[in-house]
Amino acid sequence: MHMLTGYMSADLFVSIAQKAGRDLTVTHFQNAAQSFSDTGTLVGDRSEPKGQKDSFGCGALVRLKDGAYEVSVPFTCRPPIPFT
Predict the structure, then answer these.
(1) DSSP string, 32-54
(2) pLDDT band at 23 (very low <50, low <70, confident <90, very high)
(3) What is the Rg, in whole angstroms, of the alpha carbon atoms belonging to the chain?
(4) In angstroms, what CA-CA distances link 70 with 12, 35, 62, 77, 80?
(5) What's residue 81's pLDDT?
(6) pTM of the prediction?
(7) Distances, alpha carbon 56 to alpha carbons 51, 53, 67, in Å
(8) For 36-63, what is the mean pLDDT?
(9) d(Cα 21, Cα 66) in Å, to the nearest integer?
(10) How confident is the model at residue 1 (pLDDT cuts 50, 70, 90)?
(11) Residue 16, Cα to own-chain centre: how many angstroms?
(12) Do strands 37-41 and 44-47 pair parallel, antiparallel, or not at all (unpaired)?
C-alpha cells in the first residue's frame, strides 16, 4: 500500500509538471496544480486543489494468505471522503 501511495504521488507530480509545460518553474507548477484534473487512474479521478481536502475515491485491498495474495476487497470507486 505504501509503495502504491508513493507511486501515485510521483505520478500526480509528473502529471502536473507536464501540464505546467517545458518552462517548469515553481509558479508555473503551482498554476497548473490549481486547475489540474484527470480521470481513469489507479485511485480514480484526481482533482486539485480539491484533492488537498478530499481523498481520491478508488481502491482495493489484498492480503497475503498461505504465501499468495488474494483480493480481500475488490477494486471499486466511491465518492471522495473529506479529510477532517
Answers:
(1) HHHT-EEEEETTEEEETTGGGTB
(2) very high
(3) 15
(4) 28, 38, 5, 19, 25
(5) 67
(6) 0.62
(7) 7, 10, 30
(8) 76
(9) 48
(10) low
(11) 12
(12) antiparallel
Is residue 45 within 8 Å of 15, Cβ to Cβ? no
As a whole number of Å, the end-to-end CA separation of the chain is 22
Mean pLDDT of the chain: 83
The residues facing 54 across adjacent strands are: 82
The residues with which 37 forms a beta bridge, in sequence order, are 47
pLDDT at 22 over 80: yes
Listing DSSP states for the chain in one string gives -HHHHHHHHHHHHHHHHHHH-SS--HHHHHHHHHT-EEEEETTEEEETTGGGTB---EEEEEEEETTEEEEEEEEEE-PPPBP-
